[in-house]
Design goal:
Elements (H helix, E strand, L loop, with lengths): L1 H11 L8 H26 L8 H5 L2 H4 L4 H12 L4 H25 L6 H13 L1 H7 L7 H18 E2 L5 E2 L2 H13 L4 H21 L5
Helix pairs in contact: 2-6, 5-6, 5-8, 5-9, 5-10, 6-7, 6-8, 9-10, 9-11
Amino acid sequence: MKDRIDKALSDIRKPEEELSMGSKILISVICAIAGIALGVMQKWLDSGAVNEMPYIFQRLDIGNYFGRFAIWILLGTILSVYASTPVRAAINSFVFFLSMVAGYYLYSNFVLGFLPRTYMMIWIAVAFVSPLPAFFCWYAKGKGIMAILISACILGVLFSQAFLITQGFYVTHLLEVITWLTGVVVLMRKPKEMALELGLSLVIAVVYQLFIPYWG
């Protein structure tokens, strides 16, 4: 059974040449540093620092943008699809998200002087779950209908965060539109495959919004 699964997955996308141990460690360190930095930045913005930023950033509502899901889905996707193997995608995502949670709550504890333990445990659990979707997201840059479907799921969720489409049609957040467009570029394919991918993503976005209320 395992051999069949491995063959089926390798037909979608074959792992690239194995990286050296030094390269793996370096990438993991970079993911950790980026995660900590973004976690600290997010908590800094949450604490009201956005009011001290230039007017354009306030107008863009950048503080709330980093408090929603779209940007983290996009970053997780980028970490996954550009990894050399699905296992490396899982490791990179885990290191990044766990470091982000660490940065967020270390800043909360040592700078702001409080530590919401219940929320912290929830987000730690999310970080520990992140390797599983990252593993499968790696195949989004592969070939065949399964790769297209995985890509469509990602773009569908990003689209549903950028636009409300089940109660009329309007933009929820300009930066999330840019996030969705970035996802389209990251998951770009040949024209016919791209048309199918975008069509499926629209269906997924509608279904998502019908069953899951907007949670940005």
